[in-house]
Amino acid sequence: MMTRINASDLAQRLGRQAEAVCRHYLSNGRRQGGYWQVGDVRNARGRSMFVRLRDTPKGPAGKWNDAATGEHGDLLDVIRESLGLIDFTDVAEEARSFLSMPQPEPPPAPSRQGRAPAPSGSSEAARRLFAMSQPIAGTIVETYLRKRGITALHGTGSLRFHPRCYYRPEDDSPTETWPAMIAAVTDLGGTITGAHRTWLSLDGSDKAPIDTQRKAMGDLLGHAVRIGMPGDVMAAGEGIETMLSLRQIVPDMAIAPALSAAHLAAILFPSTLRRLYIVRDNDPAGDGARDNLIERANAAGIEAIVLSPVLGDCNEDLRLLGLDALRSGIRVQLAPQDVARFMAIAA
């Protein structure tokens, strides 16, 4: 019977040959003193990632840190990311092959060929982040949204939970990890072009106590976080929480949080769209986005109707005024046929 080696043992064995591992999997880098320096863990050219080549008081050989992204890990992560592997079985097989160790039984399938590196902040990096996250049901993302009065969470597959999402306040600051709500930004065809991170407190009671609580990455212009299938009617606005608050009273209307006023003004329209509800935030930036979007919609032959909150945004109305007040305020702004179509249950 072949001996099975766990991840810790594999990482330690790889660490004893750290420089050889780096020369093989991070071939675009070079040695700098006691470190291997390269662009990132996916073998991009550059100098922001450092791999420790020998044991030091700061840590064991094989540990690495990317100063640009805050990512860190061991040499198993290097093998996984540089080759574009997903399953640990494939990573372990590749590591055993490099170390000339016996393979476990039954023999696993041959390892897959690597993918192209994903530059930091790119659409591919956003897709990988979303793929590494999990559905929100039963997580602190659900806790966070419910704390904000949002309970209609059906069809929210574009939202996920990451338990330890990297956060770095400044380029030279230590990397932190916080739980985060990860939102997929998609084009009209459903392809993920970006991702949005909202870092949360450890218990999900609020956003994380950090300076920058939200950040987006990838290709955002024209795209949005899409929830529900748009037909001839949809609603678009800025924030995820704002749009999910609207969905509390029109649960079957497709919504599209665009994440900022600038991106809301540039959102692309589905070919089937005939009426667009513009959910504005009550501030000058929201007014500018509203005006630009009305002009673009009218030029495309789409009826544009503005939905305005009483307070700062729909989530403030929901939390501070209550569901009934939000429903009453929105109801009088909807087209009469959409009141019957989308608010029938709550009427």
Automatic annotation (TrEMBL):
InterPro entries according to UniProt: DUF7146, TOPRIM_DnaG/twinkle, TOPRIM_dom
Limits of the Toprim domain: 234-321
Domain DUF7146: 121-227
Region entry Disordered, spans: 99-125
The organism's place on the tree of life at top rank: Bacteria
Signal peptide positions (record): none
Coiled coil: none
Descriptive protein name: DNA primase
